[in-house]
Amino acid sequence: MTKRSSIREGRNEGFFSRVYDVTRLVPYGRITSYGAIARYLGTAGSARMVGWALNSSHCNPEFIPAHRVVNRNGMLTGKHHFGNSTTMQQLLENEGFSVVDDRVVDFTEKFWDPMTEL
DNA sequence: ATTCTGACAGCAA
DNA sequence: TTTGCTGCCAGAA
Q1: Cβ(A116)–Cβ(A36) below 8 Å
Q2: What pairs with residue A98 in β-bridges?
Q3: What is the average pLDDT score of chain A?
Q4: Cystine design at A38: which of A1, A47, A62, A79 (Cβ 3.0–4.6 Å)?
């Protein structure tokens, strides 16, 4: 390989691409957290980067279920980035989630941890 | 190269 | 209990 593998093993592509990749793997009707994704990527503590990556996910031609990514409390901290502040909640409710006060009810039950599932 | 920012997470008051 | 400060890392200006 060229420079990609020489940078560091496991970081074949940009951080953003990896975030998109993991996010796409989140099953329908399940949710995960920024920190969980960050941890899965091997950069625990860089959960902020995950959110920032998802911020640019709209540029990605593929569908990225960014609405299935919430913070560790199950709160829809990124709802403001879906155009309308209610879009994220509606998307989640459309998948069977119950959202109350910007927080996903049964968050722990629907939680999908890439570390465990992958 | 340097500086700033960011959809978090953890811990201290 | 809530509020706020810090660390974290990669990307953009």
Answers
A1: no
A2: A105
A3: 86
A4: A47
